[in-house]
Each structure stands twice: as C-alpha cells, then as structure tokens.
Amino acid sequence: MVARPNIHVKSKVAIVGAGLTLFRRRMLETPRELAWEAARMALEQAGLTLRDIDCVVVGSAPDAFDGVHMKGEYLADGAGGIGRPTVRVFVGGGTGVFVPIAAWWHVASGLCRSVLAVAEEKMSPAHPHPQGVFAYIWDPILERPLGPNLIWIFALEMRRYMYKCNVPKETIAKVSVKNKRNALDHPAAQAAAKITVEDVLKSEVLVWPVQRLDISPVSDGAAALVMVNENEARRVTDSPVWVEGVGWTLDNTHWYNRELAYPRYVNYAARMAYKMAGIERPWKEIDVAEPYDPFDYKELHHIEGLMLARRCEAPKLLEEGWFDRDGELPTSPSGGLLGVGNPIAAAGLMKVAEIFWQLRYEAGARQVKKPVHKGVAQAWGDLMQAATVVVLGV
Amino acid sequence: MGEPRLPGTYLKEKEMYQLPGIVEHRPDAKYSFSAGQAVSRFLEGLKQGRILGKRCPRCGRVYVPPRSYCEYCFAPTAEWVEVSGEGEVNTAVVSYISTFRERLEEPEIIAVIRLYAPGYTGKKDEYEFPGIFHKLCGVKPEDVMSGRVIGMRVRPRWKPPERRVGSITDIECFEPVEG
Amino acid sequence: MRVALVSMGWSGFRPSVEELSFREMMFEAAMRAYEQAGIDPRRDVDAFISCQEDFWEGIAITDEFAPEPIGGVLRPTLTVAGEFLQGLAQAYMMVKTGYFDVVVVESHAKPSDVESMRGVFEMAFDPLYLRPLKAPNPHFLAGLMASAFMARSGVDREHLAMVAVKNKSNGLYNPRASHSARITLSDVLDSEPVVDPLTRYEIAPFSDAAVVAVVASEEAARRLTDTPVWIDGVGWSTEAGTGSMAWHDLGSMPSMRMAATMAASMAGISSIMRDTSFAEVEDRYSFAELMAAEEALTGDALEAARMLENGDFDRDGYYPVNPSGGSLAMGVAFEATGGARLLEAYLRLLGGGEEVEAGAERALVLSWRGIPTRTSMAVILSL
Hints:
The complex is a heterotrimer of chains A (about 400), B (about 180) and C (about 375). Chain A is an alpha/beta fold. Chain A has helices at about 30-45, 65, 70-75, 95-110, 150-165, 170-180, 195-200, 230-235, 265-275, 280-285, 295-305, 315-320, 335-340, 345-360; strands at about 15-20, 55-60, 85-90, 115-120, 205-210, 210, 220-230, 240-250, 290, 375-380, 385-394. Chain A has a nine-stranded mixed β-sheet with strand order 3-2-4-7-1-8-11-10-9. In chain A, strand 10 (about 375-380) and strand 11 form a beta hairpin. The longest helix of chain A has 16 residues, at about 30-45. By secondary structure, chain B is an alpha+beta fold. Chain B has one domain (about 35-175). A five-stranded antiparallel β-sheet of chain B has the order 8-7-6-9-10. In chain B, strand 1 (about 50-55) and strand 2 form a beta hairpin. Chain B is extended and about 65 Å long. The model of chain B has no long low-confidence stretch (mean pLDDT about 90). Chain C is α/β, with parallel strands linked by helices and about 375 residues long. Chain C has a nine-stranded mixed β-sheet. A two-stranded antiparallel ribbon of chain C has the order 5-6. In chain C, helix 8 (about 155-170) packs across helix 13 (about 285-300) and helix 13 packs across helix 14 (about 300-310). The two termini of chain C are about 15 Å apart. Strand 3 of chain A pairs antiparallel with strand 3 of chain C.
C-alpha cells in the first residue's frame, strides 16, 4: 500500500463548481444532452467556460444501460471533451466517486490545470426492464446458467449482514425512511417520500430480505464537477473545497468465496484515502458522510467499512438518530440514492457534489446542523468488489 | 445549490414510447466464451459428478471453483483437489422474481454454500473459503427467514449422468444432509 | 521527475487462443512483465489499470474480472474504458503526482470469443443516426474515410496498397505477427474490395492478445532495471463524439495531430520526424498509416506517400514506420492494439530479441481507437 500523506503530491486539487440534472425514471434528453446540462451548470457555478477547461474525465456505468458500446466516445461531445484529452474511467457502480479521483490525478500530476468531471447514466432505454441488463454482469460460465437476478447477490449479502450482526429488518428499513425523508429537500429527487418502517416492510417482496422500498429506483440523470489546481482555485473562488484524500480498491471476482458481512474493500479504500488526508480517527474527524446507499442495508454496511462506526454498530447508532441530518454524524443528507435516485455513475458523483455543497454551506434546507469541515463520499460497485472514496475538506 | 429548478424533462412511460422518431434497436451481440484451463477441467468434473478445486502451493488456499493462479500470492496454482461437495449454508435468500423481474410462480431459494475442503482449516471466521453459489432445495422459505438454514449441512443433488453436459447446472441444487 | 517503462509482457497475438480464457491470457502477460521487472505485484505495485470495454468482452461491468489475473486483488485497481495508451497516460499522471511509484497497465482482447462482430460494432454507432442505416459491414466507415482521405490529399490508391505490402512483409520478422505474408502490389490491387476502396489485405484482421506494462517513477525504475525506457511524453485527444460522425470531416484525423503534439511538447521536441528514429503507428486500415504519418510526422500526406514510395518507411529505411508489421500483420486486439504498438517500440528500443536491431534512441507510438471513434493517443519513448 502507498503509505504517504498528500504533502508529497505535486499540486493541490480543489472543486470549484458542481452541476446536476433532475434524476427521473425517464428523461426526454439523450445521454449526451444530459451530460451537457450537468457540465454547463458546473461551469456556471465555477464562473468558468469550456474554454477554461484543459481535460475531461467521463464516467458512466455499464454500456448496456444506454445501449451504446464505447459510451465514453459517445458522451464526449456532451461532456465538453471535444478537442481535449478525454478519458472514460470505469469501476462499475463505484464509477461516480471514481470520476473525481481520476480528475484528481489529472490536476495533481501538473498535467492539467482544470478538469471537467462528468458522470451520466440513462437506464430507461433498456426494456422490458433495465434489470435484464444485469444478466450480463455475471460470470458467463459459472453464474449466468443459474438465471440470476441482480438483487440475488444483494439479498445474500444483506441476509449475511443481518445474521452476523443480528440486525432485524425493521432497523434496516429506517435507512430507507431517513433517506427518502432527507430527499424531500433535494431539487433533483425522484423518490423523496414520507414513509414509515411499516411501508417498507409491507412493500412487495422481491428477493427476501429485499423488498421494493429497500431499493433505490431506476433513473436517468447526470452530474458534473469542475476541478482545478490551487492557483486556479484561488483565482476563481473564495471558497474552494479541497480534495484531501482519494482511495479505491477492487476485491476479487469470486464474491461467494468470501465473507459478505463486512466490506473489507471499502475499508481498504477508506484507509488509503484517510492516510492521504492525514485522518487518523475518521469517526471523530469526519463531520458529514455520503456512504453509497443503493440498498438500505448498504448504507450501514458502508458506514462500518468507512470506519465511521465499529463493526455491527451502525444499526444501533442509526436507531439513536446518530446519522440524521441533525445528528452527530449525518449520513446521506442529500437523500442518497434511495431518495434522490440512482442513475448509477451520476448518483455517485451527486454524493461528492453534496459534500461539496455541505462544506460550502450551500446545501440550503439540506444543510446539516453541526459545523462541517471535512466530509467523505463513497461508492461501491461490481460483484461486491469495488470501493471508491473521496475525502473533501475546507 | 444556486438553482432550485434543475435541467431535465421527465417523461411518463406512455409518452416515451410515443415520441416521434424513437429508434428501436435489438442488440445483436453474441459470444462464445473460452472457459480456459482451470474452469474447463472443473466443468469436466461436474459432468462426472465430481467437484474439483485447485490448491495454491504457497499459501495453501483451496480454490473452488478453481483458478489457474492464486489471486493473493500471484502464483500459478498447481495441485488439483477433489471436494466431497458437502458444506454449510453461508447465506440464503428467497427469490420471487426472474432475471427480467417477472414474478415467479414458485419462489426459488438461492444460497452461498461454504464447502468442506481437505487440508482446509474450515475455521468459522475465515474471511475466504471454497464455496459455490447455487440453489437450495428441500428447505422452506420460512426456514430462510427464520435463519434456520444458515449453517445447515448440505450436499449437491446431481442430475442423472446422461443429462449432465459439463455445466454448473449439472448440479440441480444443494439439499440438506439428513440426520 | 521522469517516468519509465520498466518491463512489458504479452500473451497470444494469434487469431484464436482457444486453450486459454482471457483471464489466463492476462495472467501470462502479467507474469512475464513482473518476472522481467523482478517485482511481486502483491507487494511492489501501487496501482493497476486495466483497459477494456464491456461489449468487446460480452460482460457488463467487465471491471469485475480485472483484478485477479494481474495481481490487483484488494489493491487500487481501476478500469479505463478506453485504449491501452489512454491507460498508460493515466499511469503516467499517477506517477507524476508523486503519490504512486509503480503502476501496472494491462489490456487484453479475445475477439475469437465474439460471434457477432458486426452487431457489436453496430452498438458503438450512434443509435439515432447510424444504426437505422443497418450497414452490412461496419468497415463502411473506414471505406468512407479512405476515399475522403485520398480525395482531399491526392494520395493514390497504390500508396494505400503499398502500406499493406510493406507491413505484411515486415511482420515476417516478428513472432507476434500471425497475419504476415509476402505479398505484392498487384495482389492487393487485383483483389476484390471488401469496402471500396479497401481490400482484405488493407483491413487488419483480429488477434487474441494481452499486453502488460510496468510503469515507474525515475527512482523506482533505476532500482528495478538497468534499461529503463523513458516515457518522455504522452498525449491523447478526442476530436468528435460518436454521436456526431454524420457531420464530421472523415478525410483527416486532427486528434492524431493533437495527441502527437501534446506528447512532443511534453517531451520537449519540436519535430517528431527529426527527433525520433522510428515510429509504430496506427495501421488497422492501410490508409490510416498514411494519415498518421501526415498528422504526426510530415504534416503533408503527399510527402508521406512519397517517402513510403521511396522506401523511407521500410524496416531498413531512413525512418522505419511499423517495422513490426503493425496491426496489418499483428492483428487488431481491441483496446490492446495501441499496447501492441507500444510493446514493439519498446522492444525495438531495447534491441531485445533476434528480430529487432538496436540503435534507435527515440520512437513515436501513435494509435487510434478505431471506428467509429475519433480518439487518438501518442507516446514518445526514449532510451
């Protein structure tokens, strides 16, 4: 493992603008248009134009969703990549938080002064149902013949977590209740709602223990960030938000050959990012977090992986209101994927954007109650394998 | 966030399919995957009703399903080992939907089976273990929900030899070991 | 701080590698690279980059299969949904941040696993403008490009054929060039065009292959090898999105020029032709080599054609272009194609292997992602 704090890094990297489209089940705009809308908004917030951008990093999860092979090339013009060094990075569902990580090294290397980081996802073109697309994520020889549904693996993981940590479904459902409630204040939100634990428990059972309201919805949407070096940051804004640490890890493909109750890959990625940021006690030093929550139990799982709670302790803290917007350590104040929606890569980048807005006190009704100086955003992907972590600070 | 009104135009399902000029495209993407050295032999074994794995000469980990290399030591795996197929249910769920999210008439029980392997300590809290992802039969959904199946001893129920083709589905499912 | 290639490994480069899965091919290539560098990937590598695209693999989220075969399990491993050389550029930047010492870049291709190549290419075409055309052969775009290139530049049909003759015979000296042949100009010109004006000799076939490179900081490189090959510059550029091909000029490829200029300026050289001794460039279609020579080397297509005709681009010429035989002889290996160009330039610079002469000191590597993209990458290597 690389074991150095970021004082060795050539150039400090700041986020100076963020943009977001609505997240919705079906959108009129093409993927390129969605990317453009988010990119334009991020540039506007930074007070820059495309001319000021040196390089572009594009992120989008499986090509099969938009139904476009080489999707990075397809999105290039909408993302502002024409005539520029443009690259698409990909770590499955973790891509959204990975886009700013790749953008970070574009700037930190000294090669680019300014980078537009864009994530887009359009899941609506696939029919009869986008879940069919997930048939192709499995090992073609050892898993696909069983006719798996994507939700199987999450259900298996959730069941294992419930078993190892002795967590009832009622507790896990509270994540869904919290995030959907938080999302009521988010202008992009698709699935914001005032619901109760009973609503979750009464919703359609898909793959027990996973029910309809345990899952984030299928969405279209895009998000973008403008990231610049220190000189540029000081020139364009009085309130840059610094990328203090980045980390990512990929675990092995054979998810059924390891313990699922604890996400060690999240832990490894978090340690890498914290080390870089000089954070030794994340549970004390992190003020606000956006852990990845495509399923409600995932937020608890990831809180533990991020070392914001001890193993099996997250459910208890959740019950105490620790993670509420006015709690000790607010998590998913945006409303997360459960509330705002889940256009995969765009949803991850939305989480980084939320921490950016929180640290600038620009989150409006979503602003957490406690004072904030440092925040962490995290996403997860692949077959319970990929973790991407970004630590931001002011 | 400055703008309360974000860009994007929402469509209802009916509206989407009524858009002028909507292009329908059915992908024509077909592949024939090479299983490779390790998995080919594993599939051959299934055809004969045997479950094969490979052992890493350096760390001693047993891989079921087999790999040609140890992912932790980055060394080629050498020795083949055969496991009985018996093991314990690590986690299990009840699926009410198909791959394409249609409702199933009969729910299926899906599980991760942690296999007993020779020379493997089998200690309860090991993070890694030889295992298989498959279906369970002979247990009820209630047993999954109550947690009774977790830790249950199971073994493969094989298809009759003449119906085996060298696929993971040569095992029909895993069923409880009586007694 | 300079950045170096410490070692490179490969596997395959045959039309069909049936006995190995793509994962086993990755493992073989990685083993070779790590052995040469004398490193243990589980301990000595700070990050791993795999370059691949879902539809080439037939797996959605192919990233899932990236870590195990290259030693990247539980380590910082990522996928670049792009070309090997784009991945190399990421590795270059990661090392330049000062935070990573050793980064591994991998790419592989198993086109022999793809049963419906036409259908897969079609998925890359814009769904609204190009797919409804139902083109019977995806290479039609390359045919249009070749015609537009000739019409704009005045380069002759024969010049395109000469590229095929040169590269197919160069490959006879390269053990990785399975598609080599001793052919004549009339073999090419007299055969039926596949997509007018390109004949089957001028469209590179596919190969199964895997390529792995170990990239390191100057300090680490000096520790690991006596013969680092320096990455003096990298460049990559996208000139148009695949959704706007219908309006794009097909007869030239500015992204090649932009990528080469970026790499050259990073390397501090003003004339690539003068300051490098040979080039491994894009040639998955015959015309592409002349286009690459124009955009990156001569600035003038007719000049490039004249040099080709004079034998200047031959293996033993004044400025060898694709002395390895290029993609026409080695085959297109999806996103590893640029990696193959880099591998050949790397080996030639080292003078390693009986088929390669030593003596060259600096080389240009240039690749394009192929149809329907307008993305190109360039690297300047030096000994």
